[in-house]
Amino acid sequence: MLLEKKNAIIYGAGGSLGAAVAKKFAAEGARVFLAGRTKETLAAVAAEIGEKAEVDVVDALDERAIDEHAASVVERGGSIDVSLNLITRGDVQGIPLLDMSPGDLVECIVNGVTANFLTARAAGRQMVRQGHGTILGLNSGSAQGSPMMGGTGLADAATDTLIRNLAIELGPAGVRVLGLWVAGVPETLTVEKLSKVNANITAEAVQGILDNLAGMRLTKRSPRIDEVAATIAFLASDQAAGITGTMVNVTSMFTS
Predict the structure, then answer these.
(1) Per the CB 3.0–4.6 Å rule, which of 2, 77, 167, 195 could disulfide with 7?
(2) What's the whole-model pTM score?
(3) Where are the alpha helices (DSSP H) in the chain?
């Protein structure tokens, strides 16, 4: 198994992708610590996984809570081998930049950088002591240009840079840091979920987005959520030991 005897923290494990990754990690032998703000959604994922899952209610924007949680994981499991950040950032989309408020533009940038920094720092400190570990961050790969997506492209660019810089600093200690570009996984694009970033979204618009995304992909198809989770599990494993300091294009979108 790819992740046998590894301890993995998944921040945002109650979401669609977080749940899929948690199940895959557990199936590959990992003990998974499901972290997030909503106990009910985390508990539902843990119930599907069984004894390999533990639920921890923690806010990824709370510095003290993140540090205390990391210490708790080490106390319970003995190590932190994988840290994956999948939390939502509060992106506001569907509004032209000329009509946006500074707050709506900047919130996702601040939240994204803060959460990735705090979770990576907490895990990284332990991983440096261990001499090994993998830190993973995720965004939509929109830093190359993302019209009508507000601060999403800016937040993605900031996350990409943070990941590369962390990889340079932590690499000599045996710690890998890499990012994943995951854009438009069909199972995660529903009216309910997209309405949180675009209040004007409709079912027809969602289908149009899905069709457009499939057409933009080099493979002309959108990867399924289980395929994305399998890729993340591989990148978290020792079989990907030579991969660090880069962003992996998981959903086959063209980037310049």
Answers:
(1) 77
(2) 0.91
(3) 16-27, 39-49, 63-77, 102-130, 152-170, 191-194, 203-216, 225-236
